[in-house]
Amino acid sequence: MGSVAQIAVTLTPDGEIHHLGDFHVLAFGELSGQRSPRCDDFARLCAGANFTSRLSDNILLESWDKLVFLATLAGMTCLMRASVGIILSTDDGATLMQRLLDECSAVATAEGFAPDAVALARYRAMLMEHGSSLTASMLRDVERGAPTEAAHVLGDLVRRAQSRGIDTPVLRIAHAHLQAYEATRNAAAGH
């Protein structure tokens, strides 16, 4: 079984997890796409929880859709050290945001998971919303000097792109930026 959580949270300096909004969705399903008794059981358990849950018939595609969005959001907000709205207010912000979304989508498509048109339109609207204060949790990690998931998000997409001969210059720049951040952080910690 696989799952995709969509929730905006941050870790406070005291180690508390703060929910940054009222959006909290958990999609889950068998990797095969088949319905199963354990999925039905899990759905019943989630029914009484204080979040939205739903059984997916294509959880792998939903996972890839989230990865495309997350890599774009984290890549751009970390590279620019700014919110979506501030990035879009620059001369080339919208072009770079769209380019990174296209690069990440191309990798997903090459891996056999072309982004769902509805999900892609929703993500594009969020990534192109002028005045938006949206940032990735990865940027909040950078701002507080914490480790990031860059190697597992951006790095994974870079490696997949390279193995398939897909040119991803904006993705590579964002990944290199975060690698430099991690190297600097590790050097300061004596690692």
List keywords for this structure.
alpha+beta, 191 residues, 8 helices, 57% helix, N-(1-d-carboxylethyl)-l-norvaline Dehydrogenase, domain 2, 14% strand, single chain
| Domain tally | 2
Number of strands: 3
Report the biggest beta sheet as strand number plus sense, adding barrel if it closes.
Answer: 3 strands, mixed
Outline type: globular
Which fold name is given in CATH as the topology of the largest domain? N-(1-d-carboxylethyl)-l-norvaline Dehydrogenase, domain 2
The residue ranges in which pLDDT falls below 50 over 5 or more consecutive positions are none
| CATH level-1 class of the largest domain | Mainly Alpha
CATH homologous superfamily designation of the largest domain: N-(1-d-carboxylethyl)-l-norvaline Dehydrogenase, domain 2
Oligomer: single chain
The proportion of strand residues reads 5-15%
Corresponding CATH architecture of the largest domain: Orthogonal Bundle
Whole-angstrom Rg: 17 Å
Distance, first to last CA: 37 Å
What string, H for helix and E for strand, traces the elements in order? EEHEHHHHHHH
Summary, kept brief:
This protein is 57% helix and 14% strand. The chain has 191 residues and is α+β, with helices and mostly antiparallel strands. It folds into two domains: 1-57, no CATH class; 59-191, N-(1-d-carboxylethyl)-l-norvaline Dehydrogenase, domain 2 (Orthogonal Bundle).
3D structure, described in words:
A three-stranded mixed β-sheet has the order 1-2-3. The protein is of the alpha+beta class. The model has no long low-confidence stretch (mean pLDDT 92). The chain has two domains: 1-57, no CATH class; 59-191, Orthogonal Bundle (N-(1-d-carboxylethyl)-l-norvaline Dehydrogenase, domain 2). The protein is built from eight helices and three strands. α2 packs parallel to α5 and α2 (59-80) crosses α8. Helices cover 57% and strands 14% of the residues. α1 links the parallel β2 (17-29) and β3.
